[in-house]
Amino acid sequence: MQKSIIILLCLCFHLSFSQNLKVPTDTTVSTQHKTIIKGVPINYTAETGMQPVWDKNGTVVASLFYTYYTRNNVKNRAERPLIISFNGGPGSASVWMHMAYTGPRILNVDEEGYPVQPYGFKSNPNSILDVADIVFVNPVNTGYSRMIPNKEGEMPDRSQFFGINEDIAYLSGWINTFVSRKNRWESPKYIIGESYGGTRVMGLSLALQQNQWMYLNGVILVSPADYKTLRVGGPVSSALNLPYYAATAWHHKMLPEALQSKDLLEVLPEVEAYTINSLIPALAKGGFISEKEKLSVSEKMAYYSGISQKAILQHNLDVPNSFFWKELLRDKTGQTIGRLDSRYLGIDKKEAGSSPDYNAELTSWLHSFTPAINHYIKTELKFETDLKYNMFGSVRPWNNDNDNTRDDLRLAMAQNPYLKVLNQSGYYDGATTYFSAKYTLSQIDPSGKMKDRFTFKGYRSGHMMYLRNEDLIQSNEDLRAFIKASSANGKAAKY
Length: 495
Known about the structure:
Elements: H1 2-17, E1 27-37, E2 40-54, E3 60-71, E4 82-86, H2 95-98, E5 105-107, E6 121-123, E7 133-137, E8 146-147, H3 164-181, E9 189-194, H4 196-212, E10 218-222, H5 235-239, H6 242-251, H7 257-260, H8 264-284, H9 291-305, H10 309-314, H11 321-327, E11 336-337, E12 345-346, H12 360-379, H13 405-415, E13 420-426, H14 434-444, E14 454-459, H15 469-485
Helix pairs in contact: 3-4, 4-13, 6-8, 8-9
């Protein structure tokens, strides 16, 4: 009886001190750190926090989690670039580039980017923190970012956050607040976005100029998703996949000897030229293409892709990426290849079928990223919360209507002579293929008057090219070069 009373009292004591899970709306935690970047000791401050999103009435409707890195002992902060970093999804946290690319800490992975135990993180000797300050932003429902209920406990309308234009609108306002709070209006500013983040930052470039009066020096697209070509179907969307097929087949040694014996960068220009000059026009003919031309095109596609002419003809020359991931190694090893990085291999229940059972690369990445970011935030950055860190958050349905982001970037560049664009893509990315990115760059400014302000860089890896150590080094160097090239250097913003 006495034992039962004690248990009951303990339970009541616990319940009396329990409380509902709450989202902090406006808070910061600051910590001091040291690292070595390119052989030079760097002291820096890491600030993690939550910054509100307000509606038009000034009511808090959400709060975004961010991590802000600043190098210490900088004499003139006004001259130091600020990089505002987003990932994609939509619905993805900022963890990917934060913990594997530009930040001062990176995953504990091998040279090619595969997970190793114990899971964790290490110093990033290639981080761009030596030349720029960086803030990693998590949109609503990603990371620890959340919508905030009103006094009655009712959640705000989801539709104000989850759409191409809605996302751009509230994030541009959030950036304005952040820049004002951190006194960074004088600094050269850059926005970088990976995957869907490419769409996001293309739109933000104009929204920041027109609605926040904030002018950028650079927009950086990392494996960008352009929904004018991505998964829309049709001759252009389909044909743009062929150079990616060639790159992946080359990597897996599935090309004819005449191609396989060459270096990748000798092969790709040939395939790109064929895609633009021959394949797109052929696919545009649809069912009216002559049998002779259809056979000729299918033979060439087989030559460049590593899959059979028969399979290509069975798809009427329109081969889906998902089929390619299943088909390329079907008769060689029976393995599938990864979607976001086709160097990765998977094992399906059956070799038969038209698409893989799962994404081999993503499951591999989640091995490393999930434990690392949770451990890092709590142990090194000292940000404590019982909220779940959403690697991928609930943002559906997502409104894709009125996507004018490609033209938004063009207009932003036209209005701002300082603004330049860097694209970084992996040759083995089958989700947002490198040649689709090249095509997008070519279509942003049909006049060609600004083509010298676009730079494309390719890497021998996939969607997250920075996971491969050789590409981590080079891609960060390319960022440094871009920042230097897009610096005003005292020149006036005029044509």
